[in-house]
Amino acid sequence: MPPLTATEKVQIGARAALEKRAIGLVVLDLQGISGVADFFLICSGNSTTQMETIIEAIRLALKAAGIRQHHSEGTAESGWRLLDYGDVVMHVFLDETREFYSLERLWGDAPLLSVER
């Protein structure tokens, strides 16, 4: 079986996050715009507990698909968690922290990728 594409990885992560009721989920397509990653998944949780639930769901879904996480950063208590899968970086925020970092505005030139449920 060939390795999953970045698009397939971000779709798996997005579906897992949405199953845990992630808020305001968007996927920014950074291909050709940045060397950081091909996609940023950005979403929010209502609480640190929901953030951790979303993070765990993403990890488990990608692990089940044979995808290994490169590393993670942040803590739920800080209001921001990051999961790095190389070509896909997933950000889970509390709303006020998401507004502070404003990644959607920072990467405003990036087109949005439609998420398939």
Describe this structure in words.
The chain is of the alpha+beta class and 117 residues long. The protein has a single domain (6-106), classed as Beta Polymerase, domain 2. Helices cover 36% and strands 26% of the residues. It contains 4 helices and 5 strands. The chain has a 5-stranded mixed β-sheet. Strand 4 (80-84) and strand 5 (88-94) form a beta hairpin. Helix 1 packs across helix 2 (48-64). The chain is globular. It starts with 5 loop residues before the first helix and ends in an 11-residue tail after the last helix. 32% of the residues are buried. The model has no long low-confidence stretch (mean pLDDT 94).
What's the short version?
With 117 residues, this protein is α+β, with helices and mostly antiparallel strands.
Secondary structure layout:
Layout: H1 6-19, E1 23-29, E2 39-45, H2 48-64, E3 71-75, E4 80-84, E5 88-94, H3 95-101, H4 103-106
Parallel strand pairs: 2-5
Antiparallel strand pairs: 1-2, 3-4, 4-5
Helix pairs in contact: 1-2
Percentage of β-strand residues? 25-35%
How is the biggest beta sheet arranged? 5 strands, mixed
β-strand number: 5
CATH topology: Beta Polymerase, domain 2
Structural class from helices and strands? Answer: alpha+beta
Separation, N- and C-terminal Cα atoms: 23 Å
List key phrases describing it:
5-stranded mixed beta sheet; about 120 residues; alpha+beta; Beta Polymerase, domain 2
